[in-house]
Amino acid sequence: MASSAIKHVEDHHRHSSSARDLLGGCCNLVNEHGPVTIEHVLLVLREIKDERESRFWGLFNFFDASNAGYLDFVQIKVGLSAMQISKDYKYVKELLRVCDANRDGRVDYQEFRRYMDDKELELYRIFQSIYVEHNGCIL
């Protein structure tokens, strides 16, 4: 299961890289200021909503190796370990705390998706704050 999720992410990255090559290496197509939306993120990633949904489902299913339909402490710990990310108790507990909106000790897909939306928007905002020249480079 881990290798198929990793392959899915690698295939997506390869597809996105070739799209960037076709567009002359431009790394950001959005040059406007104001509120950032998921549509901005989709445009920058050159991803349609179905591709994004597939990417999120792939990652969720990677963590949900037992097909329980939710993620719990153990599944998050095992998933992070498989990705060679620290499985330290505090990181797993913090991820569970942030994702588990209804505080039932589990993260369902909708909670996971909201978390991923929020993180991608946060990363895009950070990118925009350092992307001051709007010339395709963040130097």
N-end to C-end Cα span: 38 Å
Strand order of the largest sheet: 1-2
CATH superfamily heading: EF-hand
* Computed CA radius of gyration, to the nearest angstrom: 17 Å
Number of helices: 6
* Strand coverage percent: under 5%
InterPro entries: EF-hand-dom_pair, EF_Hand_1_Ca_BS, EF_hand_dom
Keywords: Calcium
GO molecular function: calcium ion binding
Pfam family, one: EF-hand_1
Care to give the gist of this entry?
With 139 residues, the chain is mostly helical. Helix content is 63%, strand content 3%. The protein contains six helices and two strands.
Key phrases:
single chain, 139 residues, mainly alpha, Recoverin, domain 1, two-stranded antiparallel ribbon, 6 helices, 63% helix, disordered N terminus, EF-hand-dom_pair, EF-hand domain-containing protein, calcium ion binding, EF_hand_dom
